[in-house]
């Protein structure tokens, strides 16, 4: 419903387009009650802080084992897609160049979007870099590459949005000393208001420019309007390119990558692109999982937006959850996936190891973390009585931390943002299924 309302407001200047919105969204109803959210925030473009060629909205992502993609936007088109970098402040012994693009969305035209892949990079190393070349008024930034061995820590937050809750979540994540961030969809909550994508990029830049952020899409990234803008994911694909080619994927909406010298294989799936048995995504997933050698890669993690298991009253019966689960659950179970993270539901929930709606010691652990700080508030109503397979559930904003100590053991901790203090309200140790003899294939 929020997407429809915001799109209509955005297009209200046009009588014809406003009528389209009214027809599309007039029948939408809110199916559950949420407590009041915190206020929206906006990180605006300040002419005193930026020149047209000043890099902004900088974020980085992994590309293969020893490379990193640096992405940023400039207001003008004369900035060079170039990154200078090195291991000492002000001393840039390496330079790489990349590509520049832009996109249009109705009446909006993006700035120049620059993407540069740098490397090879040394693991667990602090690099200093600047975007745009020496002629660009670019401040020096730093990034740290993940370690190439255990231990390694992931931070996880879904449905971030841009509210005061978001800033609280980001502040807690910044103190977690994480190596890689996973985001299971619903990033900016721009909902077709394209300047909100720019605001989000500036909001997360401080963190996203320092550690790799690996994301997948949610329903708020679709931004497809019949008769008005018929191409889905335009802003998402333009602004947040992920390394899908490296995993033989045909789409930026689903891909995989390795961490800790291939000790961990992470699969990022797309809830809002075709997942049926004859789809490109299904065939890719089947082939990707088949390539994983669990003697060399003991951990297998999956990230998807719409949860396959959910005891909250919110988002029940949706095809992106139910039909995708029906289509793909057997693949994950047969591959002995260790844990599946999802967003979408604005509350936290951790399930037991599950397969086919029943507890199964060889099934994945399912965890919902769709409560990073979105403007819609929390989904506070749960199905009663609580299903036996649901171990812990809590309607709270926050983030999670998953630290892989070695090839066999990892610790998961959920940190809620209650009273703006990161309280560890749920914590559990995981043992990789690759170390369970009874789950050997």
From TrEMBL:
The EC class name is: hydrolase
* The keyword GTP-binding is annotated on this UniProt entry: no
Fibronectin type-III domain sequence ranges: 54-148
Lineage top rank: taxon: Eukaryota
**Pfam families to which the protein is assigned, alphabetical:** Metallophos, Metallophos_C, Pur_ac_phosph_N
Keywords, ordered alphabetically: Glycoprotein, Hydrolase, Signal, Zinc
Position of the signal peptide: 1-22
What is the catalytic activity of this protein? a phosphate monoester + H2O = an alcohol + phosphate
Molecular function terms, GO-annotated:
acid phosphatase activity; metal ion binding
What InterPro entries does the record tag this protein with?
Calcineurin-like_PHP, FN3_dom, Metallo-depent_PP-like, MPP_PAP, PAPs-like, PAPs_C, PAPs_N, Purple_acid_Pase-like_N
The cofactors named for this UniProt entry are: Zn(2+); Fe cation
Q: What is its EC number?
A: 3.1.3.2
Q: Which family does it belong to?
A: Belongs to the metallophosphoesterase superfamily. Purple acid phosphatase family.
Give the protein's recorded name: Purple acid phosphatase
Q: Which organism is the protein's source?
A: Cannabis sativa (Hemp)
Please name the taxonomic classification of the source: Eukaryota, Viridiplantae, Streptophyta, Embryophyta, Tracheophyta
